[in-house]
Amino acid sequence: MKKWVGGVLVLSFFMGLSGIAFAQEAKAKPVVKAAAKEIAVETKAVTPEPAGLSVKDIITNQALEKAKETLISQEWLVYVMPAAGKRSRGMEEDTMIFKDGKISSKNLLAKGYPESNFTLKMQDEYTAVFETMQVNEKEGIAFIRGELNGSVLKGVISMQPKKGEKEAMNFSSEKPEAQAQPALQEPAKKKGKK
User: Fold this and answer.
1) Is residue 194 assigned to a domain?
2) Is the pLDDT of residue 105 over 50?
3) Alpha-carbon distances, residue 192 vs 89, 185, 186, 188 (angstroms)
């Protein structure tokens, strides 16, 4: 009987402790909930991400936003060159502008290709890819696909004219190094009898 009474006393003691803890928790819940709401409000103000996104999705969305900010931060001077194997013309300078969800190229605007909407997605954690299609009813279609990696913009402009040959041109915001030309040598003089 003593063991049973002792067991009941010990059990009562622990139940009493858990009751105290439960009462303290009940008192603390409104304070904790209020603090959690404040944290949530502060967090939403800093990073307004939709609920239910994974950490990877949130990081990707933040990287996309940073890429958009970088693209619209300036007018991009790019160097346009014929794709490999084509040497019909040399390097040209162009300016690409990203504004209000649209992209334009000063050279293409001059040829009648209007600005167009572009899509932007992350290829990996450092590289954002943009694509667009610009249509000139009289001339044809220009497809632009580019990459932004850090502060370097590069890509390809594919021209598909209604008449004539298709043409692909590479562009980069980094000026390509001049290719070394082989030095011209005078032909060796023949040594002969005088």
Assistant:
1) no
2) yes
3) 45, 20, 17, 12
